[in-house]
């Protein structure tokens, strides 16, 4: 597939998706959102890909939603004009659903992440930033509010108090503060951010895919579960399934000897 707003390449077992709509500071419009989704789905369908890195060139990771984008054509079935909000927050087919069902996803933030530029990274499995990266929550100052699941995901990552503070005061933090509060988990020098993110993704891609998938699924399912029997039950089922998969893999290897 030919892309107009992003670039895609494969480095080893890593699919590298780079935002490349710099004339609009990588702001999401509908075509860009659809291209990103298509690239992620293509990576998920490729047996040669074990992990995905999403990053950017230039001084801005993503400046949010492109409110100056021309309106899309109406959907012939629903008669509704699609927009980034309706697509990224669609029931059962949202951005969060996409990332959570995907292979491991790392967001590598270079420069400024603003508005939806931040809320989109919250669903990623791992978030790393460049030394010069910044994270701005301008919603209330613009008469807007956090979206793409941020009102649930942000408190889970950084705590209720910090989430309220940043979102209600239209706050902004630098890389060191983002690391301290848990918004991102690693900081790299600007010049090596992408290489370090790809190396981290390559490490993940070297692990058994089934084990990674089950670990990811369990953490997401159990993170907000308060029923002890429920989360222990999910883990038990996963261990039984893991044993069966490993047993089958061992048997297949033995047949080849």
Task: Give an overview in words.
The protein has 257 residues and is α/β, with parallel strands linked by helices. It has two domains: 6-205, Alpha-Beta Complex (2-enoyl-CoA Hydratase, Chain A, domain 1); 209-256. It has helices at 30-45, 84-88, 95-101, 116-119, 150-158, 160-168, 175-181, 193-205, 209-222, 228-256, and strands at 6-11, 14-19, 51-56, 60-62, 105-109, 112-114, 126-130, 134-136, 172-174, 186-188. Strands 1-2-3-5-7-10 form a six-stranded mixed β-sheet, sandwiched between helices. Strand 2 (14-19), helix 1 and strand 3 (51-56) form a beta-alpha-beta unit. The longest helix has 29 residues, at 228-256. The chain is globular, with a radius of gyration of 19 Å. It starts with 5 loop residues before the first strand and ends with a helix.
Our Rg estimate from Cα atoms comes to 19 Å
SS elements, strand count: 10
Tally of individual domains:
2
The DSSP helix count reads 10
Low-confidence runs (pLDDT<50, min 5 residues)? none
Order of helices and strands: EEHEEHHEEHEEHHEHEHHH
| Spatial shape | globular
Question: Based on helices, strands and strand pairing, what is the structural class?
Answer: alpha/beta
Order of strands, widest sheet: 1-2-3-5-7-10
Q: What labels describe this entry?
A:
10 strands; 44% helix; six-stranded mixed β-sheet; 257 residues; four-stranded mixed β-sheet; single chain; 17% strand; alpha/beta; 2-enoyl-CoA Hydratase, Chain A, domain 1
